[in-house]
Amino acid sequence: MNSQSLSKQVLIIAIPVSLKIFLDMAMVLIDLFMIGKLGTAELTAVGMGLVLLSGSIGVLDNLFATGGGILVARLTGANKHQSATNVLGAMFIIAFPLYMLGTLAIPFVADLYLLFQTTEEVAELGSLYFGTLLAGSVFIYLDVLLFTYFVSTGDSKLPMKIKIASLGLNVVFNYLFIFGNLGAPALGIQGAALGTVVATLFNVGLYLVVIKRSCFNSINAKDSFKHIKDILKLGIPSVVENFTFQLSWLFIISLINSYAASVAAGFQIGYRVESIAFLPGLGTAAAAATLVSRFIGANKSEDVDKVVLVTAKVTCLFMGVVGALMAITPESFARVFTNEPNVIIDAALYIRIIGLAQVPLGLQFVYTASLRGLGDVSKTALIKVVLLWLNIVIPSLIIVQLELGVVWLFAVIAFANIVDAKVFISRFKRLRSPSYMAKVHGTAG
Q1: What gap in Å lies between CA 189 and CA 201, rounded to an integer?
Q2: In angstroms, what CA-CA distances link 80 with 152, 171, 216, 371, 445?
Q3: 229 and 262 together in one domain
Q4: Boundaries of domain holding 379
Q5: Is 216 found in the same domain as 335?
Q6: Tens of pLDDT along 386-414?
Q7: Within-domain flag for 336
Q8: Radius of gyration of the CA atoms of the chain, in A
Q9: Burial 16-33 (b: 16+ CB within 10 A, else e)
Q10: HEC string for 129-143
Q11: What single DSSP character describes residue 185?
Q12: Helix, strand, or coil here: 215?
């Protein structure tokens, strides 16, 4: 397969995935904008609720994308479409117990908010908002796994189109239920949660309609149960990695918060800018994981190296351009979020430094995703955690203890991207031996 054809396949997956993730972020921003009109307490309650929701979705995303997604892509590549459909059934089976477990927390949501040092008012509002989300989270979980399934089969345009439709629906329901317009009840903060649940239900409904109309293979429940173990085996290491990463990153943020208030605020703005900037990298990483898994399933190991190389080049192009803009004009990015001069200075410092490391960050995305596609999940997760502590957490702690400037801490975060990229590129090359590829292919179906 030539480079032009591979580049097309990468972009077919990467662009819709990146846009879908951007639309997810846009939905959050729209919710916050509308809730902000109600008051500070409401805004805080929603913000905390979204943090808690993203944590639970992150667990599912890692479990399904790394576990179910890899299996679906491999089986699709091997033309074992019935087995791929049965993996979807296995993901359904896993999702429902997790949903039931989550609903047990509904009576304790206010206590959970208080655990994070919120006020009683915010905790009460959070109980309405996050409690409603938990009650309807089955649709959120199904949305996550169906998105994973379709991307893994190579159809990434459908999730993007569905997200565009549901984004508009979410705005409409927010307008109706938050403020009580057009005769609807004014539910305030609970109305925002209800709007999210209804919009996500709409997503799931559209997915199911497409599945029915496309004459997909019927799910064989007996065979689906057999895939649960494989999904958990591949997915759990990624879940543990993500959980450890989140805890470690919270510790790093606490170190940054020990500096001036403008530094803490500037970092939050800079990190938000970076989160938008690396969307192309997330899209190309999804393409790498999907295509590598598919070629493994199809026993086309010669195309694995080609697609990873092409994906790496595409990623470097997109993230290199964005990184250059961040490094050259960081203040323009910071001013989108604030007018405070000191905050702009500190935000621009982080944006400029991290902008110089966007290319290695993108390579890290691509090669870790490719390693997962090869089936190297557990060791990749372990290496990522070890590198996080060796390259960022411990050096950051030393910098703070020595009372060095925050510029050193920001530089450590940027330099870690370079080290991580080099480590994972080297590991990928080592695992491309013929004997390892034969072993991986033997587990594809």
Answers
A1: 19
A2: 13, 40, 12, 22, 8
A3: no
A4: 258-445
A5: no
A6: 999 999 999 999 998 998 999 999 999 99
A7: yes
A8: 22
A9: bbbbbbbbeeebbebbee
A10: HHHHHHHCHHHHHHH
A11: -
A12: coil
